[in-house]
Each structure stands twice: as C-alpha cells, then as structure tokens.
Amino acid sequence: MNDLTRYKLCAGLHVPAAAKLLYCYLLDMSGGRHSSATISIKKLAKDMGMSRSTTSRNLHRLEKLNMIGIVPRYSEDGGRLSNQYVLK
Description:
This protein has four helices and three strands. It is α+β, with helices and mostly antiparallel strands. The two termini are 14 Å apart.
C-alpha cells in the first residue's frame, strides 16, 4: 500500500484523532490491511505519546467498529503476552 492510499484510508475514518493515529501506526507496523501486528499496549502508548488508558480505550473503539481484531496471546505456562492486532 503506498503512502497516498494509506493517508486517504486514515483520513476517511470517522473516529477521534487518537484512534486514527493508532490505526495508521498499526497499519505501518503490519505492512498493510489484512495483516497483523504484535505489540504491547505499553509500547503502543509510549510510541504514540498517549497514556495506556487512552491507547486501550481507542483500541477497543476500533475493535467495536470492526476495523481491527484484538487477539489475546498466552505463553505455554498461561502467562499473558502482548496482544496481536489484526487489521480488517
């Protein structure tokens, strides 16, 4: 996906600016639509310059709008790992 297409896609979203920023960042990390990125909320928040709660709230907002899927991951012993975000 070229830059112009990505910018048009993000500009057309009807969500708050923080959610657009997160979606575009996930798009860049994953390499385009219909792929996924694995990253922690803490790292996302730090990279975006937002709080963890703002990041989490906007990720769930994107999930409710069916723009991303959030897949929880677990280690073999049952411990939590970073979520996987699937772009739709």
